[in-house]
Amino acid sequence: MTSLYILLGIILFFVIALYLSNRIQRRKGNVQERETLPPSIDARTKEEKESGCCGMHEVCEKDSLIAAFREEPEYFDDEELDRFRLRDSGSYSDSEVEEFREVFYTIVDEEKPRWVRSLQLRGIAVPDQIKDEIVLVVNDLREAKMHA
Fold it and tell me: Is 78 inside any structural domain?
């Protein structure tokens, strides 16, 4: 029962502290709402949109897994993977995982992130068994690219 009182006391303390902090800020005149919204990715210039750079990073990575938004998926001579559309990433057999692995390692290194994005657009989940492997390879490629 004592621990319940201690817990309630701590909660009450934080509620009062939050209330007092808010009240002090208002007395100081800090009641302004943010006048302008922070820039969003959609508020890019025409040049940034055409170049594929979002303008939000010091170094622009055009081949980012999430930055290369495309409406239509690209195909990398991997149409046979379309039969896995809408399949759970944990339900692949070993031979099916090997199909993904074979396609992944036959794609040119610079195109590997675009391939992963293409799979996402096509509704194809990457098998759980090779997700870590793909992430490691793509991260290594980006590291090598940044140090080149």
Answer: yes
